[in-house]
Design brief:
The chain is of the alpha+beta class. The protein is 25% helix and 23% strand. The mean pLDDT is 91.
Length: 164
C-alpha cells in the first residue's frame, strides 16, 4: 500500500460557488465515455429546490458527489480482485481490466460514488483524469478545484469551525 501524502492533490468542491451548470459532468462523460451523458459521469451535481414558507420565490442549492480518494480507501480494501489500487500520486485507481462488476466498491464507499455500468458490467469511479481533471478545467466559477489534500482539509476545518 502506498503511504499517504498531504501534498497529494484532491478535488475540492465549494457549493457556495456552484451555479449548477453541470459542465463538469459533461466534461467527465466526454473524457471517459466520449458521450454527452450525465449518467456516465464519475461525479454528480445534485440540485435541491428550497421553498421558503410564506414566500412566492424559491432558491436552488447544489451539492457534488465525487470520489475524495480516501486514505485508506474502503473501496480498495473490499475489492476481491485487487482492481482498485492507491497510486503514488494519491489517486485511488480502478483498473477496469481486473474489475468483475461485483459492486463491492460501491457498497463500501460512504458516498457511493463508484457506480456500476450495467452495459459494460463494470464499476467506474473518478480517476482524476490522470492528474488533469477535466471537471476543474471547465468550471469557470472555480467551484471545483484541484488542490493539495492538506489545503482541502484546512479549508474544511475552517468552515466547520465558522459554522459552530
Amino acid at each position: 500500500m502506498v503511504s499517504p501524502s498531504m501534498d497529494d492533490n484532491v478535488l475540492f468542491y465549494d457549493e457556495s460557488k456552484c451555479t449548477g451548470c453541470r459542465y463538469c459532468e459533461i466534461a467527465c462523460s466526454l473524457r471517459h465515455h466520449n458521450q454527452l451523458n450525465f449518467e456516465l459521469s464519475n461525479l454528480t451535481i445534485n440540485t435541491k429546490v428550497i421553498f421558503k414558507e410564506g414566500e412566492m420565490s424559491s432558491s436552488l442549492d447544489f451539492s457534488a458527489a465525487h470520489c475524495i480518494h480516501c486514505d485508506p480507501a474502503p473501496c480498495q480494501i473490499v475489492c476481491p480482485t485487487g482492481a482498485i489500487q492507491k497510486e503514488l500520486d494519491g489517486r485511488v485507481f480502478l483498473n477496469e481490466l481486473k474489475c468483475i462488476g461485483c459492486r463491492s466498491c460501491t457498497f463500501a464507499c460512504s458516498l457511493s460514488v463508484a457506480w456500476f455500468d450495467s452495459e459494460a458490467h463494470l464499476s467506474h469511479k473518478c480517476d482524476l483524469c490522470d492528474g488533469e481533471p477535466q471537471c476543474v478545467d471547465v468550471c469557470s466559477v472555480k467551484a471545483i478545484v484541484f488542490i493539495p489534500r492538506i489545503a482541502a482539509r484546512s479549508t474544511m476545518e475552517k468552515r466547520n469551525s465558522e459554522e459552530d
